[in-house]
Amino acid sequence: MIRAHHAAAVRAAEEPLLAAGEPLMASAAFALATHVVAELRARGRVAGSVVLLVVGGGNNGGDALFAGTHLVRRGCQVHAALVSGDVHPQGLAAARAAGVVVHRVLDDADPAAAVLALARRCGVWVDAVTGIGARGPLRDPAAAVVAALAQERAGWPQEPVVVAVDVPSGIGVDDGTVEGPVLPADVTVTMGTAKPGLLLPPASGLAGRVEVVELGLDALAAEPPAACSLTAADVADLWPVPGPDDHKYTRGVLGLAAGSQAYPGAAALAAAGALRTGLGMVRYLGPEVPAALVRTRHPEVVTVPGRVQAWVLGSGVGPEDAARTHELYEHLRAALDARQPVVLDAGALTLLHEDDHLPDLPATAVLTPHAGELAALLTARGEETGREEVTAAPARHARLAAEITGATVLLKGPTTVVAAPDGPLYAQHDATPWLATAGAGDVLAGVLGALLAAYGDLLAAGTADGGGLPASIAAVAALVDGRAARLAAGLPPEARAGVPSWTGVRGRSGAPGWTGPVPAGGPALTGVPIAAGDVAAALPAALRTVLA
Ligand SMILES: NC(=O)C1=CN([C@@H]2O[C@H](COP(=O)(O)OP(=O)(O)OC[C@H]3O[C@@H](n4cnc5c(N)ncnc54)[C@H](O)[C@@H]3O)[C@@H](O)[C@H]2O)[C@@H](O)CC1
Ligand SMILES: Nc1ncnc2c1ncn2[C@@H]1O[C@H](COP(=O)(O)OP(=O)(O)O)[C@@H](O)[C@H]1O
Ligand SMILES: [K+]
């Protein structure tokens, strides 16, 4: 699990160490320099490379200035552009003494142009404008400098190498929002622990590879993270594996009330996802057209009522289908009365648009909206919200919906965000954009429902919030579903797997003095198109990569 903590928690954990005289900044700076050197070495050579430090007014800039002293010793030519009038004094003195060339760009009529002219000669840009001390989006002059660098880099996406210190300056460190200019990083070297903004979208998309520098912030180990991302090892911990005494009822029975006369396919896709996740039985309840399709495609599925341990409700049900929506309502009431976990997808989400006919939901109810559905739900419940607002701040809106309804919310999108009314946020970036295809959500609902069914008796017997278990189950479902999508698309199972491959050193045309690294190129893996059924079919292969 990658754990991320809020800025305030990091400060609190640093306090006793700083009071005891621990040289945290020296450690941070050395680690930063080591990572810059590693990036340079991976791309060619270290000595002779030209490095730009973009230095702000706090300790984040201090990290970079001290790192600069190490880089000079490794033979780099290091320039520091000071974008604040008041930078870390000891860091500045040490940098000067070591031979870092200091540029007071604020004395220039156009600081952004001055930094840009300098940057064009440098193969590595170290973004040390702000870290956890940032308040709001970047302000000028730092904002103008960062905007100019970001624009320059957009034209040369593979050069220079951008290394962000702690976080890419300008992101919402605690919530992952991006409300002003940010320079996208190739690597973020983050101090002590990850920060939520490195995991949560949209800011997570600007962080590149994240390297966590161990600073011995022991106090954080005892605290629940503010946000986290599960990894393959967490799947192995949570995935239900049958023992010798298990039978189909102990393995879990999923009640599936999905699909309709108009959208029968959703029933078959959700069943496919559930069956390949592993459970005792899928029991399908619905009209004859989808029921017949499910029986044909999946003869294992039972289509008569009976005992279940969890439900998937609503995939493939349109809000105009009043009769089917009423059936969903009856299933939901019964599930809540029996304390059974339940997935509310698509048409079942509209049941929550009014709050006077249902009790507050428990966290064992998991909502699976995409951004549009979440915006509609929030608006119906008195929080006027558009789809774009959800996309700009997914974590905040998922949490809000969880607080309003009491349920756990799995918000679908490029990064899946899971929020319960309290506890950590989960951010899973395991899939591929090829997954954005009709029916993919139905498969995911089936995967999630099957996992909840396997944990059904435990969740029904436990506390109403399931002790945070429903949120971690939802994150695991997104992870495995995302991996299956990647494998189906012909991609390696891990998203963001390691450093992109770069080799060689060449000069940058029109950039005299350029001595930095340049990527060898070669097309990135794009993968191939997939249909939702392919994702379900790839689930066993995806599980082989995590349960072996
Ligand atoms: N406390 C410590 O000794 C350690 C701190 N560390 C580093 O120090 C950083 C935190 O340092 P600080 O608390 O000094 O804060 P930062 O350096 O993150 O930010 C504070 C500076 O940014 C400016 N600033 C704030 N908001 C701004 C905005 N919106 N636009 C433009 N400028 C803005 C402030 O005026 C101030 O100069 C961490 O992110 C980490 O990089 C590490 O060296 C580990 C040890
Ligand atoms: N850009 C993207 N990158 C990766 N995954 C995506 C992206 N956009 C959507 N997804 C995923 O694709 C699936 C689409 O589900 P959904 O929108 O419910 O489709 P449907 O309702 O047709 O089944 C979800 O798992 C979602 O998280
Ligand atoms: K930074």
Question: Which terms summarize this structure?
Answer:
about 550 residues, alpha/beta, Rossmann fold, UDP-N-acetylmuramoyl-L-alanine:D-glutamate ligase, ten-stranded mixed sheet, seven-stranded parallel sheet, about 40% helix, elongated, binds ligand NAX, binds adenosine-5'-diphosphate, binds potassium ion, EC 4.2.1.136, metal-binding, NADP, CARKD, lyase
| Separation of the first and last Cα atoms | 18 Å
Biggest pleated-sheet summary = 10 strands, mixed
CATH-defined architecture of the largest domain: 3-Layer(aba) Sandwich
Instruction: List how many beta strands DSSP finds.
Output: 17
Bound molecules: ligand NAX, adenosine-5'-diphosphate, potassium ion
Strand order of the largest sheet: 1-9-17-16-15-14-13-12-10-11
Q: Could you please say which CATH topology of the largest domain applies here?
A: UDP-N-acetylmuramoyl-L-alanine:D-glutamate ligase
Number of domains: 2
The radius of gyration over CA amounts to 26 Å
Global geometry: elongated
Structural class: alpha/beta
- CATH level-1 class of the largest domain: Alpha Beta
Mean pLDDT level: 93
